[in-house]
Design brief:
Structural class: alpha+beta
Distance between the termini: 46 Å
CATH class of the largest domain: Alpha Beta
Largest sheet: 9 strands, mixed
Protein name: N-acetyltransferase domain-containing protein
Number of strands: 17
Shape: globular
CATH superfamily of the largest domain: Gcn5-related N-acetyltransferase (GNAT)
Number of domains: 2
Pfam families: Acetyltransf_1
Number of helices: 10
Oligomer: single chain
CATH architecture of the largest domain: 3-Layer(aba) Sandwich
Order of helices and strands: EEHEEEHEHEEEHHEEHEEEHEHEEHH
Helix content: 25-40%
CATH topology of the largest domain: Aminopeptidase
GO molecular function: acyltransferase activity, transferring groups other than amino-acyl groups
């Protein structure tokens, strides 16, 4: 294994397994002391033998300030079991800079899959993993709280198979053969006529680069959505054989159109979910306008509007492998709350809290933090600071 220069005087160097275990004992309390972990007591069985291991120490000059430990989990998978960095060295992008070196090592060693799990509200680790190409695979309860398993495929076909499983794309060609599914017809661009921007029901928000976000009536949004829907979506949803029989429930609705050069290029629609929660139902951009950083620029004005309407929480659902949307949502403060299967596929459920109480509550539930202060009192834990 190689020495990795992480910049800023930091490096990662191969260390013996015994050095890593000693560092866990010496530094583990400082790194993980604020989390909640179930204490099982003495081990009753011997641990299974380790396969191939990968152990690095993270150094500031010559001082050991953290580590990364991974081991072989199967004939195809390596498991990133443990990474820790002392608190005073966190928030400097070390994990993000270390990750590509680790993945290159696993690839060179011949692995197909890289797996890990993290507390479900630990966005500081989940975000760089998603940016590196990992996908969310589920949620589970374990001795550390609620964790999110994540997998990176170093094989392009398997990565696309996860998109098919989530409903984010159709199965075609070799991918369909490997999944034992019929191959879908090759996707073709859907022709559409440009739609001029209608009049606003409020002030435009300048999104930069010639783009605007314009509030409109729900009926205006839905009419345009119906015209452009096929040109926007390539995901695979269930086609219901008949319209829904009950009348839709009437909720407060909030709709915007995204415009460029006075033409509609996308939209956003939200509605009330319950007495405390708004639901971000639908955001879309025409293909020619994706990859320009528009979604992160749309989020702040939409969230401000929902907050001024009195909501405490904002909920949204996205295909579990749609990292292009999950990353900006998590960066905006959303937290992963679950996975569900609906008529669109396997969807990640995200939640944003405008206040700190519910945000801290999510961290307590995941085991990322121990209860203290207001959240402990709200949970009836009679916490004494």
């Amino acid at each position: 294994m190689s020495v990795f220069d992480l910049g800023g005087g930091y490096s990662a160097r191969p260390i013996p397994l015994e050095t890593y275990r000693d560092a866990c004992i010496r530094l583990g309390g400082q790194i993980f002391g604020g989390t909640s972990l179930y204490a099982f007591g003495a081990d009753t069985k011997a641990p299974p033998p380790l396969g191939e291991t990968f152990t690095w120490g993270i150094y500031a000059a010559e001082e050991l300030i953290g580590w990364s430990f991974a081991y072989q989990q199967s004939e195809r998978a390596v498991y990133m079991a443990d990474t820790g960095i002392l608190p005073e060295h966190q928030g400097r992008g070390l994990y993000t800079r270390l990750l590509p070196h680790l993945l290159a090592t696993f690839r060179a060693a011949g692995y197909t899959l890289v797996q890990s799990h993290h507390r479900a509200t630990n966005n500081a680790v989940i975000l760089p993993k998603l940016r590196a190409g990992f996908f969310i695979q589920g949620l589970n309860l374990y001795e550390g709280g609620m964790s999110v398993p994540m997998t990176l495929s170093l094989d392009d076909t398997y990565r696309d198979a996860m998109h098919v499983r989530s409903g984010f794309q159709a199965a075609r060609g070799e991918l369909a053969r490997r999944l034992g599914l019929p191959s879908a017809p090759q996707a073709e661009s859907v022709p559409f006529e440009a739609v001029p921007m209608p009049e606003a029901q409020g002030d435009d928000t300048d999104l930069g680069g010639g783009y605007v976000l314009r509030p409109v009536a729900y009926e205006t949004y839905y009419d345009i959505y119906s015209q452009l829907e096929d040109a926007v979506y390539s995901s695979v949803s269930l086609n219901w054989p008949a319209p829904a029989r009950p009348e839709p429930v009437e909720h407060p609705r909030y709709a915007w159109l995204i415009g460029h050069q006075n033409e509609v290029v996308g939209w956003h629609y939200s509605r009330q979910w319950d007495a405390r929660t708004a639901y971000m139902v639908n955001t879309a951009l025409l293909p020619a306008h994706r990859g320009r950083g528009l979604y992160p620029r749309v989020l702040p004005p939409v969230l401000r509007t929902l907050q001024t309407q009195g909501y405490d929480l904002v909920r949204s659902h996205h295909h579990a492998t749609n990292n292009a949307v999950l990353v900006p949502k998590l960066r905006a403060g959303f937290r992963l709350q679950g996975l569900q299967v609906d008529d669109h596929g396997v969807m990640a459920v995200l939640m944003l809290s405008f206040g700190t109480l519910y945000r801290d509550y999510m961290d307590v539930r995941s085991g990322l933090k121990q209860p203290g202060g207001e959240v402990a009192r709200a949970l009836g834990m009679n916490w004494k600071p």
